[in-house]
Fold each of these.
Amino acid sequence: MINNDFVKNIHWLGHDGFRIDGSCTIYIDPFNISGGPEADIILVSHEHFDHCSPADVSKIQGDSTVIVTEKDSAKKLGGDVRVVKPKESVVVKGVTIEAVPAYNTDKDFHPKQKGWLGFVIDMDGTRIYHAGDTDFIPEMENLNVDIAMLPVSGTYVMTADQAVKAALAIKPKLAIPMHYGAIVGSEEDAVRFKQELDGKIDVIIPSKE
């Protein structure tokens, strides 16, 4: 079972952006945010402007904030920046962060050779997977996570139907759709994702904060 109090502390910031409040305050791909509590950790999946936004990072970055990202985004960010590659992991402030692959299989927006990232966050007894910008890739079948945040919009990432297949392969206790309502995709994609998984995997369609 997932701790419901933990789930309540997952906040969708729009697009691929999340804030997770727990023993640490973690932001993932903050974009077009107005601000928020100071980050202990900021995870940046790749260098595209809607994921690596130095202006948005600066709104939540403090002197002790640690940024975990890949090499291309690291060039655009300052402070305590730690570079990781897929399949590497780091421990930051007691939180284990595993970098996992994120790439396209049938389009060229996110080439595998770039080494861009998804993340598995192990915090407070819960494992959360943020897929980053990706298609349904074979590496997903080896994940062991409680919560999976999956893009559903199509165009640059997998479609809702492909995300359903990804969720069934990953088998999380809870899935959360993302990557819609900003650059591409709509809430209809998230609803379709939820409907197709009804009775198979619990899905929460988040409200933007």
Amino acid sequence: MVLREPMILQMATRNFDQIEALLQQGQRIEPSPDDQARTVERAITKRAPFHRDKNSVADALLMEMYASVVKAETTDPADRYCFVTHNTKDFSTVDGDTRLPHPDFAPYFDGLRSHYLTSLSAALTLHFPDEFDELLEEFDLREEPRSLDEILAAEQRFFDLIWYQRSINYMEPVGESARRRIEQQYEAGELPPYDDFGWGMLNGKLSTLRWVLGSEWDFLDT
């Protein structure tokens, strides 16, 4: 991947559609005879990624193609390159820091113009730390957990509504005063009758809240 200044502008737009369009404009490369020859040589000499005694021709060819792009005389000296992979078993150092390339690949990465990285986020953070951090903060979807008071209030609400429905079903005369309290406390649209889906949702919510509060699953006594 060649990272140039336009990427910064794309990140600043906060528009994922434009980022996707930028990636789609990437240059497709094909393996050259030299890439294939170096791949065969790697296999013969058992150098990474052939150190694992498996068919790693495709992985080796990817690395050789990357090296050819970085070393090409036609490239702009200002260009920066990243080889980004999650396949640390084939490409990273063995029994060490997996963020580092295998020693057999080390000559391809000088840490200045060419970088070995194990995640796309690490690549973007490396080259555009301010812009990428801001983008992550803007689209951080983590939510703060509910307070105990909120959970207890919700649990009481679903308890009331379920008890009210059950009380009507069994026509419990001793529950008349409690039913009047609930009728005054809740909106008419919150009270029964419920269809099967609505009734199931109420019970599921009560069960979940009680589990959070320490009860076993499916504890629905009222």
Amino acid sequence: MQFSRYLPAFALRQALILTLAALVLGLAANQLNPRGIAIGAAPTGAAAWDDSPTPVYPRPITLDQLQGLMQRRAALLIDARSREEYLDGHLPGALHIPFEGWFEQIDRVRALPHERWLVLYCSGGTCDLADLLAGELIREGFEKVAVYRGGIAEYRLANPLKRGEEAGRE
């Protein structure tokens, strides 16, 4: 009879301990995940873009930061999607280097400017082609690599897309 009196307090304490453990493990997993959610207030807009090297590879970039870089022509945009998707609509001035078969364009990849930021994107959402291609570029020695994870899905909500062949051939 005595034990049943302490059972609700014991269960509550155990639930609290499990909840705290889950919170700590979840935050740790988010921090270690390269596609984790940014926690805390981060500056936004073009002024928030810091051109200095970063230990986060590839560097995540927001729509506001992307638009600031595009206005200043401070980055080279790279579309990692298929040719059909690229022709259907891409960011203005973007080069097409699809992740699928990128190694077939290795000479073109190696000729990209190392001193300029390379901003990769794909469809957005669960698309990881930009992240995969960014990893290959980093392995090729590029240090200024960023990924716009909002991709076409987010960009097209407020901006027109270019259609047809890539920059330089339009």
Amino acid sequence: MHATARSGPMKEKDGEHPLGDAGQLALLGLFAAVWIADSFFLRLSTFPAASVSLFVRLAIALPILAVALYLVWAAHVVLYHEQPDHVATSGVFRYTRHPMYLGSLLIYLSLVLATLSLLSCALLVGIFLFYDYIAGYEERLLLEQYPDEYRRYRDRTGKWLPKIGTQT
């Protein structure tokens, strides 16, 4: 979420989906259990890893993890240290409307790439759908609270990836 509802009429915590935090924690626990079990013990779906060296997998996964951690940190700085009372459009929010969620998804992706667990990859698809759902919910709240400002922001900023050729 990228606008606070401290002064607004919304009842949800900072305009977030009521089940957003619980859903994220539940999916994190499920993903961790599946990823650890499949990647290190059962190895039911990690056969692609035999074709790609660990060095190559980590050379791809670690930069993605670094970007992910930066996105989460930078979004946290804007939301919780600057505490905007309007639509947050500074910092990483200039490039993507949901940098904290994107960072979380990239953390999952980096783990999938490190071990090439197909079960974890399938679960990541479901996790993405959940994040997309709660992001859409939050965007509807922002449109209600800041109709003109959020519409302008949405038109120039990508939901998940930066829009090419738009002014920020």
